[in-house]
Each structure stands twice: as C-alpha cells, then as structure tokens.
C-alpha cells in the first residue's frame, strides 16, 4: 500500500481489487439530503452522496424494507398467532416471533468472533446491555471494587459505571479509575493501561474499555489487555463496549478470553436507528448461574410458558435476555448480518476497510494543511492533524481529524454542502469513516480533494 500512488487512477485500481457492495445499500442522494445546488460540475441532484458516517449510523441494506414489510404483513394477517405460527403459503414473516432472533445467532457469532451461538445474544440496546452485564459481572467486595476504564469514555458508559458503583453503595470518586493519555498525547499507550492494571490489581474488580474509542478512533489491544488483567488476578473481569468495533474490525472475543462484551448494531452493523443491541458472554461463564437482571426470555425455553416461580437460566449469553425482542428491529439486524456472510465475512471486509482507511490516511498526510500530531498547534491556521493512530492494527475504519481553532465548523459545513457526510465533534474534530461495504477508494480520493479545496479558501 505504501507504494500505491496517490492518484484517482490508483484509487480506481484499488476499487477493482476490493469491489464495493454499495449496490446492496440505499445510498442517500444529494436530492434526498435536500442539497439542491451541487457545488461540483460533475454532480447533479440525483448524484449519490459520499457517506462517511457509518461510525454513527450505518446505511440501510436494500433488503431491509422487504423484511420489515414481511413482518408487518404477518402482524396484519395473523396477529398474535404469528408468535407461534408462520404462514408458509403466504410466505410472510421470517420465523414465528417466539424464535425470531434464532437465525441471527450464528451470524452474530461469526462477526464478533464468538465460538458459537451460545456466546451471543441480540437484545435490548447498548447502555441497557452494559448495565445488564455489569449487574451480573461487577460484584465489588470491600477489597476489590474498582473499575478501570478510559478517561473520556462515551458519557453513557461513564454514567453506567457511576450508577453501578452507587447501586453498590460505593463512591464513584474512589471506585472509578479513569485512565488519561500522557500529557500532549491523544491516545492511550497499551503499556500505560497495563501499568494501571498492575497499580490497582489488588483492588480492581473490572476493566471495561471500549474496543474502539469513539472520539479518537483508537482500537485498543484487546487481547493483550484482557490477558494481562486476567493474569494480574483471576478475580478481575474484563468487558468491552464494542459500539465502534462490532462489524468494523475482526474481533475474536472467544479466543481472546474476553469475559463479556456489549454492542449496538446501528453503526457498522447497519441495523437502523435505535436498532437492537447485542452481548457476548464467554463460554467459561455459561454455567455459573450468576445473579443477574433475570427475565422470562432468559429462562429455559421448554418451561418458559409454564410460568414457573423459579428462574432457570439458559446457559450462556441467551440466558441474559430479559424480554421478547422487537421483531422489526431483529429482522433489520438479520438482513444486515446476512450481508456480512455474503461478502465473505468480517475478515474480508476488514481487509477492504484497512485498504480504504490507509489510502485516506496517506492522502490526508500529503495535504499541505496536514501537520503531524506531535507538531500540531491549534493556533496555526488553517491546518489539521489526525489523532487516530496511523498503524492500521490500532484503528478501525474511522479517522478523527483535529482542526486548527475555529476552522472545523466551516470545513464541516462545506463538506456537507458537497454531499460529503461525516460527523463533527465540537469544538474541533471531524470523524470520517469509509465503510467497507458501501464506500470506495475513489470516494476517499474525492473527499480529500474537497477538503483541500475547502481549506485553500480559508
Ligand atoms: C461507545 C458508546 N457507548 C454507548 C453509546 C450509547 O448507545 P445507546 O444509546 O444505544 O445506549 C454509544 C452511542 O453512540 C457509544 O458510541
């Protein structure tokens, strides 16, 4: 890749090597985004936008609409009967609703590197799942009560940690250990995370990081951190919030010995806004009957409808489900998961992703407005740096660009006006994430060209 020239032709050659799956997705057009005045001569209002925001909300697989329609038809045609009976004659509906999430499990297991369907479940949404897993796995004692996590974790995660500590009667000030990057650095060094584990190892109950940091795009060394914490003490549990990692990078949760993980599915798993979330629970915990926020959907299926007074947990992740899942959300996720399989699996997609994001990094680093992160001065305008690690092993699809003071909003608006959709994190960051399904190297080329044009006008 380092030798690939940074030209449009080179981008097109890479696109032949790594074909796009854009035809499987609904790509917003300039017109559908309400952009009626294209800023480039080659565009008209029916031109597709360049959507680099799958890190926030993935685009809709075209097959999703029919899948949702089929369940609406099943509802219309059979009402409550659809819980237990498909109508094979009409073909509406995927499964009886009582088992609507069954077909998802093997596909979900493949995407997050579980060893089998028993290690995953589609359920709830992300913050709810984080609470559910912490309720089961964070069991502080007088001696061991701390949670180690990244400073500036997504606020919902922080609130969950605070709430969990408080529910155990602990003071979050002492129970929570947020880890900051070194002064002048944006990302955490693995060696510093391991040193913090060492420092707190006698009082740590849990290590819970995000797989990929939402702001910086840093992909933590999940395997090393997990195994190090376990080696420091078998009483430390290690959990991961994979909001920005699931469907983005090829995590191997089972092989890495991760205790638990949770994720949403509306980002790289393309399940739609507010889509159903998911969990992973390692098989080593399958039968430990730990106390949990129990609900009837986690109960032994053969006795679920007998309504017995004692909870009989399904061994594994499925035993953490509480409620019958939203059928519409579940089939949306199913349609997306089938595309991962169709594309050859997460490993193949990750290779395409690395190629595009590396091309993006290299093009950005060639810009006359780019300044290496160690030399960046926010008062030298106009300029930008990249706070995401350059090493592909330490990042997923997303690059986070940090702009000189009072520059970002203008750049963001101008990109938007050209139908280039990223997202902004005020005051100064734009996140750009070429998606391995529906973006192309040529789009990467166009985005950097537009960025350079916009910054030249500042
Ligand atoms: C890292 C992380 N954690 C938690 C959340 C909250 O997700 P939800 O609203 O689905 O609970 C998000 C949402 O973007 C996130 O990125």
- How many domains, as an integer? 2
Q: Calculate the terminal CA-CA distance, rounded to whole Å.
A: 32 Å
**CATH level 1 class label of the largest domain:** Alpha Beta
What is the succession of H and E elements? HEHHEHEHHEHEHEEEHHHEEHEEEH
**β-sheet strand percentage:** 5-15%
What structural class is derived from the secondary structure elements? alpha/beta
Biggest sheet: strands, sense, closure?
Answer: 7 strands, mixed
With helices defined by DSSP (H or I, 4 residues minimum), what is the helix count? 13
**Topology, number of strands:** 13
Query: Could you tell me the radius of gyration in angstroms?
Result: 23 Å
Mean pLDDT: 96
Q: Approximately how much helix is present in the residues?
A: 25-40%
The rough form would be described as globular
In which order are the strands of the major sheet placed?
Answer: 2-8-7-6-5-3-4
CATH topology of the largest domain: Aspartate Aminotransferase, domain 2
Q: Give the names of the bound compounds.
A: pyridoxal-5'-phosphate
What features would you describe in this structure?
It is a single chain. With 458 residues, this protein is of the alpha/beta class. It has 2 domains: 154 residues, Aspartate Aminotransferase, domain 1 (Alpha-Beta Complex), CATH 3.90.1150; 269 residues, Type I PLP-dependent aspartate aminotransferase-like (Major domain) (Aspartate Aminotransferase, domain 2), CATH 3.40.640.10. It is 33% helix and 11% strand. It contains 13 helices and 13 strands. A 7-stranded mixed beta sheet has the order 2-8-7-6-5-3-4, with helices on both faces. Strand 12 and strand 13 form a beta hairpin. Helix 3 packs across helix 10, helix 4 packs parallel to helix 5 and helix 7 packs parallel to helix 8. It is globular and about 70 Å long. It starts with 7 loop residues before the first helix and ends with a helix. The model has no long low-confidence stretch (mean pLDDT 96). The site of pyridoxal-5'-phosphate has 12 residues, from helix 4 and helix 5. Its EC number is 3.7.1.3. GO terms for molecular function: kynureninase activity; pyridoxal phosphate binding.
